[in-house]
Write a structure and sequence with these properties.
With about 260 residues, the protein is an all-beta fold. It has no helices and 22 strands.
Length: about 260
C-alpha cells in the first residue's frame, strides 16, 4: 500500500512574465512555511532581489515529507530611453530674446523641466526658452521607462536677477548645482555642472543642525550623486557642497512628508 504525499505549495510574487526598467530592483518572493528553499541563483532565502533579465526558479522542500516542487518567473529589464538636449544658439542672452532647445534620442513622451519643476504643456521634442534657469527634459518610452536628460543652463547677463529666490546658483560661476526631484520624498540626486570636483556634502535644516553628511570618493568621474534622507524630518533643508579647494556651495531643497 502506498501513501501519496502532497507536494509543497508554491506561490511566487510577482509571477509569470515581469517587465521592468534598467536600474530597477524587484523582490521575487515565495510563501514561507516550507523546510527549505533553493533558488537558481544559489540563494536559500524565501526571496531574492532581481536586477537582470532572465528566468528565476525556486525549488521548495516540504515540511513533512521529502517531496519537492519548483516554480519560475521570467523578468525582462528594458533599457532606459536615451535623450540629449541641444540649443540652436548661445544660452546667455538678454531678456526678450529666446533660443530653441531640442531633445534627441529615443521616441516617447516628453516633459520639459525648468529648475526641476515640470513646465505645463511642454510635452514635445522641442521647447522655446525665453527665460533664465536650469532646463532638462524627461522622456518616457512605450515600456514605461524614463530617463532624465543633461542640463542646459540659460543666463540673462544683460540684467540683474529680479528676485533673489529665483537665482538658482547661490555660489560662484565656477560650480553649478542642480538637485532633483525637488521637492522630493527623500531620495535625491544632485548634479555638478562645472569643472570643480566636489569633495563632500551635507544636509542641514534651517536651524543649522546637520542631518546628513557624506565624503565623496576621490577621482569620482560621475557628475551625479545620490543620497537618501527618507528617515529625516520633512521641510526646507540646505544642500551644502564642499569642493576640493574647501569652498562651500549651497542649494535649497524641500523634503516632503
Amino acid at each position: 500500500m502506498f501513501t501519496v504525499l502532497p507536494a509543497p505549495q508554491i506561490l511566487l510574487s510577482p509571477s509569470g512574465n515581469v517587465s521592468a526598467c534598467q536600474g530597477d530592483t524587484i523582490t521575487l518572493q515565495t510563501t514561507p512555511g516550507s523546510s527549505g528553499y533553493l533558488w537558481s541563483t544559489g540563494s536559500t532565502n524565501t526571496f531574492i532581489d532581481v536586477t537582470t533579465s532572465g528566468t528565476y526558479t525556486v525549488t521548495v522542500s516540504g515540511t513533512s515529507s521529502s517531496c519537492v516542487a519548483s516554480s519560475s518567473a521570467s523578468f525582462i529589464f528594458n533599457p532606459l530611453p536615451t535623450i540629449a538636449l541641444t540649443a540652436n544658439g548661445p544660452t546667455n542672452f538678454c531678456v526678450g530674446d529666446s533660443i530653441l532647445m531640442t531633445a534627441t534620442g529615443s521616441s516617447g513622451n516628453y516633459q520639459w523641466l525648468r529648475n526641476q519643476i515640470p513646465i505645463p504643456g511642454a510635452n514635445s521634442s522641442s521647447f522655446m526658452v525665453k527665460g533664465r534657469g536650469f532646463y532638462q527634459c524627461i522622456i518616457t518610452d512605450s515600456n514605461g521607462c524614463s530617463n532624465l536628460s543633461n542640463t542646459l543652463i540659460v543666463r540673462t547677463p544683460c540684467v540683474p536677477p529680479q528676485d533673489p529666490i529665483d537665482k538658482i546658483q547661490v555660489s560662484s560661476d565656477e560650480l553649478q548645482l542642480v538637485v532633483f526631484p525637488n521637492p522630493g520624498s527623500g531620495q535625491f540626486t544632485f548634479e555638478v555642472i562645472g569643472d570643480i570636483i566636489p569633495k563632500a556634502f551635507s544636509i542641514i535644516d534651517l536651524s543649522g543642525r546637520e542631518l546628513f553628511s557624506e565624503t565623496l570618493k576621490e577621482h569620482n568621474n560621475s557628475r551625479r550623486y545620490h543620497f537618501d534622507i527618507s528617515n529625516y524630518p520633512s521641510g526646507v533643508h540646505i544642500l551644502m557642497v564642499t569642493d576640493e579647494e574647501e569652498k562651500l556651495h549651497r542649494l535649497k531643497l524641500i523634503k516632503l512628508q
